[in-house]
């Protein structure tokens, strides 16, 4: 396991954060059809319905993720990404646990996500399953797309 992580509600102005978001978007878009890409850019992540967090190990940016409020006590996990240099240290699990707990603290009783069906997203899907997410149908404004997998976890408030 890696060191202690510090999570920060982030305003997306730090260049290192913007660079990590660019890496996330470029990877997602490189293996997802354009019409099926649901990754949010910086402007979308600055929305009033989104809480965007970064994860830090000292001065090192480890990762990021967001919780979007969909209303009706449902949240959506968005833009979770761990920097390549920090993978394999347990940071993804800790970041996911933090985001789920944040959703719970905001009064959400369910959190859902959309991820790619492509093999390039297999590790992410396995992480979500290990943390209690189950495949579900589309939620919120999503419509069924064979390029996407939808997952949900009940938070049991």
What does this structure look like?
The chain is an alpha+beta fold. It has a single domain, classed as Gcn5-related N-acetyltransferase (GNAT) (Aminopeptidase), CATH 3.40.630.30. It has 4 helices and 7 strands. It has a 7-stranded mixed β-sheet, sandwiched between helices. A hairpin with a 2-residue loop joins β2 (50-57) and β3.
Count of helices? 4
Q: Point out poorly predicted stretches.
A: none
Q: What would you say the CATH architecture is?
A: 3-Layer(aba) Sandwich
The ordered H/E elements are EHHEEEHEHEE
Percentage of helical residues?
25-40%
**Largest sheet at a glance?**
7 strands, mixed
In total, how many beta strands? 7
Beta-strand residue percentage? 25-35%
Number of domains: 1
End-to-end gap: 29 Å
Name of the top-level CATH class: Alpha Beta
Report the structural category.
Answer: alpha+beta
Which terms summarize this structure?
157 residues; alpha+beta; Aminopeptidase; seven-stranded mixed beta sheet; 4 helices; 7 strands
Structure summary:
This protein is of the alpha+beta class and 157 residues long. The chain is built from four helices and seven strands.
Q: Could you give the topology of this structure?
A:
Layout: E1 6-9, H1 15-31, H2 42-45, E2 50-57, E3 60-71, E4 74-82, H3 91-105, E5 110-116, H4 122-130, E6 134-136, E7 148-154
Parallel strand pairs: 4-5
Antiparallel strand pairs: 1-2, 2-3, 3-4, 5-7, 6-7
């Amino acid at each position: 396991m890696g060191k202690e992580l510090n999570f920060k509600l982030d305003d997306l102005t730090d260049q290192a954060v913007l660079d990590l978001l660019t890496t996330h978007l470029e990877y997602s878009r490189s293996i997802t059809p354009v019409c099926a890409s649901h990754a949010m850019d910086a402007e979308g992540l600055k929305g009033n319905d989104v809480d965007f967090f970064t994860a830090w190990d000292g001065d090192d940016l480890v990762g990021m993720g967001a919780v979007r409020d969909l209303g009706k006590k449902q949240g959506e996990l968005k833009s979770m990404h761990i920097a390549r240099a920090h993978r394999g240290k347990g940071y993804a699990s800790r970041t996911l646990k933090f985001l789920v707990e944040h959703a719970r603290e905001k009064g959400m009783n369910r959190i859902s996500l959309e991820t790619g069906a492509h093999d390039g997203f297999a590790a992410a899907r396995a992480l979500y399953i290990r943390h209690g997410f189950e495949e579900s149908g589309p939620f919120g404004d999503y419509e069924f797309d064979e390029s996407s997998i939808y997952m949900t976890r009940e938070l049991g408030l």
